[in-house]
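Q: I'm building a small set of examples for a reading group on sequence design. Run inverse folding on the following structure and report the sequence directly after it, with nothing in between.
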């Protein structure tokens, strides 16, 4: 059962994008992607909100998330959030092991 966490980082004066740039350039993003149990760690930029960045962060299970939260890297991430004065909205989703219902398939273009 995979767990996906969507984190919306919002700031001012381009700070959310600066945060992402520093996360990538410092190697933190690569380190997170290499962690045991990480399935996805990607940033997206909403078209209609230039001051927000969406992080889609997926993990194999809660144990993998807990292990990630216990790493020293979390201190780096927290410091960068503070540096760029970012506010967060978090959504959490658990995967549906059965996948999309058969009726939905006709609406999904492969």
């Amino acid at each position: 059962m995979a767990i996906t966490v969507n984190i919306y980082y919002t700031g001012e004066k381009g700070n959310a994008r600066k945060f992402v740039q520093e996360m990538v350039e410092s190697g933190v993003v690569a380190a997170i992607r290499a962690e045991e149990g990480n399935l996805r760690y990607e940033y997206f930029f909403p078209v209609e909100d230039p001051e927000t960045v969406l992080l889609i962060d997926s993990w194999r299970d809660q144990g993998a998330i807990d292990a990630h939260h216990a790493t020293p890297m979390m201190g780096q991430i927290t410091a960068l959030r503070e540096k760029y004065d970012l506010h967060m909205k978090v959504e959490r989703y658990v995967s549906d092991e059965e996948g999309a219902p058969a009726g939905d398939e006709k609406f999904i273009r492969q």
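The mean pLDDT is 94.
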